[in-house]
Amino acid sequence: MSKTGRTIFAVLIVLAGVVMFNYPTIATFVNNLFATREIAQYERQMEEMDTSEADRQMALAHAYNASLPRSFPADPFSGANIADLSGTEFETFEMTQPGGMIGYCEIPKIGVYLAIYYGTSDEVLGKALGLVENTSLPVGGPGSHAVISGHSGLASKKILTDLNRMEEGDLFFIHVLDQHFAYKVDKITVVLPEETKELAIVKDRDLVTLLTCTPFGINDHRLLVRGSRVDYDFTVKQKEIPVLSRENPNWLRWIAALAGAALFLIIVIVRVARDRRRDRKARREEGKEEQACEREEDNS
Length: 300
Hints:
The chain has five helices and eight strands, in the order H-H-H-E-E-H-E-E-E-E-E-E-H. By secondary structure, it is an alpha+beta fold. It folds into two domains: 1-37 and 252-300; 49-238, Sortase, Chain: A, CATH 2.40.260. It has an eight-stranded mixed β-barrel with strand order 1-2-3-4-7-8-6-5. Helix 1 (3-21) packs antiparallel against helix 5 (251-299). Mean pLDDT is 82; it is low at 241-245.
């Protein structure tokens, strides 16, 4: 292998290592771009929607929530107690169609900005958040309890991987149609899959629970992060968290990525400079040898 080939090979090895080490962060960044585009499209659709249509859907959503049983929750894991909407006014309701987009969720502390779909199919949970069937639609109101589920530990998407970083008092936000809802975390619990009491509707309470599997790599329990509705001024712009801020959950990975990129660049520069010096030296030696041969020929 030539010197240039060896240099290129070494550079490719370093680049592959940098990409592999930072793959989750890079993949999350790319997926967030797609999520942002999808949410932006949803917001445009909501802006174009007639006020009367938005009011109709919101009224149906509240009516649907009022029809749900308070005495027992659905089991999102076995499918037990899932309501059958056939023959009801909700059978063709936009927000209760499997895989249909309901709205989106923001969790500033852990950098979540994802669409919410109805249902927890593999297709839904493979790309974003899913509303657990037979739990309230996330449109607020007393006597409602929306349960929003998301995967954790996926190699290509973070989704709710960092949900275990949430603490009581943290805020998260739900956006549906032209309405915005703020929730403050008031309870964090870990339960077995069959333990669904914490998902029940509580009279006169406006609740949203974020649900994911735990612990990482084992996933035999469920982490429940419950929020209670609070007043919030949505006209105040939220503080943007810089990429390299300690408040950003990925700041260490971004620093590692930048350090890896800098190391990669340094290696390239050093190898190229060294190869050029060697080439110049080799050419000088070849020139001296040619001159020596010419002198010998002249003397002979």
